[in-house]
Design a protein that fits this description.
The chain is α/β, with parallel strands linked by helices. It has two domains: 194 residues, P-loop containing nucleotide triphosphate hydrolases (Rossmann fold), CATH 3.40.50.300; 137 residues, no CATH class. 22% of the residues lie in helices and 26% in strands. The chain has eight helices and 18 strands. It has a six-stranded mixed beta sheet, with helices on both faces. Strands 9-12-16-15-18 form a five-stranded antiparallel beta sheet, with no helix packed on it. The chain is globular. Bound molecules: guanosine-5'-diphosphate. Guanosine-5'-diphosphate binds next to helix 6.
Length: 367
């Protein structure tokens, strides 16, 4: 493409190479007078927002932009991967703008997780991470649970201002906005995009009834997300589709569990006890002896211990060991983006292994 084209909807530079990247439009559209990117096209004609992903640099630009606006910020995280889907640094940029924190995918949690406890935990955790949301909500964008309540809260807290929806990729931001749109505009209404003054950050503006806008910002790629290390075809294995069924393992000291080939849990010492595993129902768990675990992994990763796939092994990061002693009862050992193991009694010495770059941590149990 020698000439530079700009989308009349959001101002992004048009490219015709990659459908999943920002600014994509099919080649044929370049012949038209008013060119719109695929994302704006979908919004205009189908009333639907579409994912696009951003690099870290672009993310910083967006954060800077948010700080300059007088707006309500709606931040979405995936409650199944709270820390992995957190957007670090947001609090340093938002200035005095109010924030609502939305934990999406509540439909996946086992029934034993109490929503109020989780909300309380999210508030605590946000505070520690430097963010002070006005309110915290749990929703299921996919099922529509609590979307009405959140829509009302957005209306209340925005006080006539614009609304910016931010979140990293895969938290369900598009699903959420599409739900809100139905709530606000009614199913059949066609909305239009309009040019966003002074920026080409491809945020798209969805007009609200009072002349203000709901702004969809691109999804940010968070490199700590487990999802980046898994083949696209295997995402359905690690991403739960239904309520998680906890699986209880009675382990002796010196036993190991493998979660596919993506994570490993060593029970080092603390006497025979039970461990409650919360992972996607589709992810296979293998039990073995700790002394045999290294060898088993080496021989079987990519086949019995999968994902990852055989053909990914060259690029798949090594598993890194994180050792912990469980000091309090009811502690979760979290494998970011994959799941967690609840340990009921204190005193166990354990090790959690995750691909290099992904977080493993302890937290007070959600149950
Ligand atoms: P985005 O990248 O943040 O815009 O995320 P999407 O809206 O594309 O959703 C990412 C994935 O999460 C998709 O597979 C959705 O089906 C799924 N998803 C979104 N919302 C929910 C939800 O409330 N519950 C469940 N179980 N899955 C969801």
């Amino acid at each position: 493409m020698s000439e530079q084209y700009i989308c009349i909807g959001c101002g992004v530079k048009i490219q015709t190479e990659n459908k999943d990247e920002i600014g994509y439009a099919p080649k044929s559209s370049l012949e038209k007078e008013d060119i719109v990117c695929q994302r704006c096209f979908r919004l205009k004609h189908y009333n639907e927002v579409q994912d696009v992903n951003l690099t870290d640099d672009d993310f910083l630009k967006i954060l800077n932009e948010l700080g300059k606006r007088d707006a309500l910020i709606v931040k979405i995280v995936d409650i199944f991967d709270f820390n992995g889907s957190w957007l670090p640094g947001l609090h340093r940029f938002v200035g005095n703008n109010p924030i609502l924190l939305i934990g999406n995918k509540v439909d996946l949690l086992p029934a034993s997780v109490k929503p109020n406890k989780l909300i309380h935990w999210m508030k605590q955790e946000s505070k520690e991470l430097g963010l002070k949301p006005k309110e915290v909500f749990l929703v299921s964008a996919a099922k529509g649970y609590f979307v009405k309540e959140v829509t009302e809260a957005i209306e209340e807290y925005r006080e006539g201002k614009d609304v910016y929806v931010v979140g990293c990729t895969n938290v369900g931001k598009s699903t959420f906005i599409n739900r809100i749109l139905k709530e606000v505009t009614g199913e059949g209404d066609v909305i239009t995009t309009s040019h966003f003054p002074g920026t080409t950050l491809d945020m798209i503006e969805i007009p609200l009834s009072d002349g203000k806008s709901l702004v969809d910002t691109p999804g940010i790629i968070n490199h700590h997300q487990m999802a980046h290390y898994v083949d696209k075809r295997d995402l359905k294995i690690i991403t739960p589709k239904k309520e998680i069924k906890p699986k209880v393992y009675q382990l002796n000291e010196g036993q190991t569990l493998f979660f596919g080939g993506l994570a490993r849990f060593d029970y080092i010492s603390g006497g025979r006890r039970s461990f409650v595993c919360h992972f996607s129902n589709e992810l296979e768990i293998h039990r073995t002896k700790l002394e045999k675990a290294d060898d088993l992994y080496e021989r079987h990763v990519g086949e019995m211990l999968t994902p990852p796939r055989q053909e990914q092994l060259d690029t798949f990061p090594p598993l890194v060991k994180h050792e912990f002693t469980i000091k309090e009862g009811k502690t979760d050992v979290v494998f970011s983006g994959l799941g967690w193991i609840t340990v009921n009694e204190p005193g166990a010495k354990i090790a959690a292994y995750v691909p290099k770059g992904v977080h493993a941590m302890l937290r007070k149990s959600l149950i």
